[in-house]
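BUG: 3D viewer hangs when loading the predicted structure for this chain

Environment: internal workstation, default settings.
Expected: structure renders.
Actual: progress bar stalls at 90%.

Input used:
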Amino acid sequence: MLKPTPTPTRELVNLDGVWRFGIDARLGDQPWTTRLDSPLEAAVPASYNDLFTDPEIRDHVGWVYYQREVRVPRGWGGERIYLRFDAATHAARVYLDDVFVGEHIGGYTPFDVDITEQVEAGGAFRLTVAVSGDLTNETIPPGKIEVGMTGKKTQTYFHDFYNYAGLARSVWLYSVPATRIDDVTVVTGFEGSTGSVDYRVELVGDATVRVRLTDASGAVVAEGTGAAGVLDIADVVLWKPGAAYLYDLTIEALQGGDVIDSYSLPVGVRTVEVRGHDFLINGEPFYFTGFGKHEDTAVRGKGHDNAYMVHDFQLMEWTGANSFRTSHYPYAEDVLDFADRHGIVVIDETAAVGLNLGVTGGLSGKPPFPTFSEEYAGAATHAAHAQHLRELIGRDKNHPSVVMWCIANEPASNEDGAREYFEPLVKLARELDPTRPLTYALVMFATFQNDQIIDLFDVVSMNRYYGWYINAGDLATAELYLQGDIAGWVERTGKPIMMTEYGADTMPGLHSVWDQVWTEEYQTDFLAMYHRVFDRFPSFVGEQIWNFSDFATTNGLHRVGGNKKGIFTRDRKPKSAAFSLRNRWRGLDGRKPGTDA
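Structure tokens produced before the viewer hung:
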């Protein structure tokens, strides 16, 4: 799916701003047929939950409605006209005036609606978007809706971050030619000093294709014709972690020698490979340092914010981080664009979090019924998961910063049924993109003794909390558990191993001279213990701390003001551990500890 962008043949209008807003319980049966009868307005992009003081809105179960007027530029006659939603969490229905024109299920991937037949150049229309944040066993992520003793619907979900909903990313109106470039796929490589860009163009309509590759100075370095081919680059400059270099690929569709459509995208030439115990970028061993993150800020919820994006990347650079995981859903594409330009490595994750009923059983890990069953993660869940994979890889396949797909976070991979559920998804992901390694983040219940699917994947990604959920306050015992756990995975798999989550909740300003949980000193000592253990294993390829910053969660008793495992507070102030982390990571520079590689 091509991201809308202005070109010589394409135009777009941003529809962000303040929209009329209301919840279904306070509106008529068909609120899209007239101006919303509501005094409320909501910001776009933003989650709606924290914008208002009304608790009925914050935890609403059901549909909410956004509405605004839109005018089509008068020069768009003869063009195809689309609405583009960068995300609508978790489902959307779109109406033009009184007419239903499209819908989408899946809260973190974009969708387009063709409205050419409903509008005309220079005309105006009323745009109404219904959005639902509801989660069931047929959605990714899953959840359930129950009716309590008061008769009120409540949403239950099985992931530990707040279920923000709404139009959290930008909305666009854009035009494209009737005959046009519909999709582009690039795969890059190099041999010696010669780089290669293998491209494939998909068209709507009949046209010939011409392509041109320019370097950062604008000089043409390669040209070609045809809807598929390979461009060779002499004296190629590679895209590297911490040293991004981007070429610009321009694709033109021609009829009779005339350009009828044009589209450009940045291209970073690099390779990714798993070989033995190593994770290789451009043939060189790479060691991940960084974080699991969240799209989470005060008031905006999961609303994309460019100021926070820039500041977060600055803080990651300050710590010496070279990577992050998009836990636990695809982030705004603007974030990946920024990572492409700045050489930050990304593990790109689906929204498949909560596929584990063992979590509801506490540390026993005993689910009320099997996770992989029709009562929970059955055929409908699997179909939603597969569609999410298609949309994620379709959107992000050309980003050089994305080096690995993570197809689920903490699934019940230790339970029967896990292999039947995941094996077709792994096959699908490899068909969609055979160039990138695959992983999933392992829950603590899934051990090297009972996990049923690790052989399907390329990298072992462990989420472990010895010293917090197990052996809290006893780092000496926790170190022994961690050491044995990693050793077991090394012996079983022979694959690269990394830690995708490890951390301890920390209250800023709480201090102690003892190993007291929640203190800033304990967080620092906790991380230091993990790093000692990591450094003992040559097959270890990375460490991503949970979490970059504190974030909002459910109103559970064990969460005081949200999850406090952040190295930074929710408003991005450093805790003590940030400084010790900076000392470690800035000395690694993508190399394994204790090596020159």
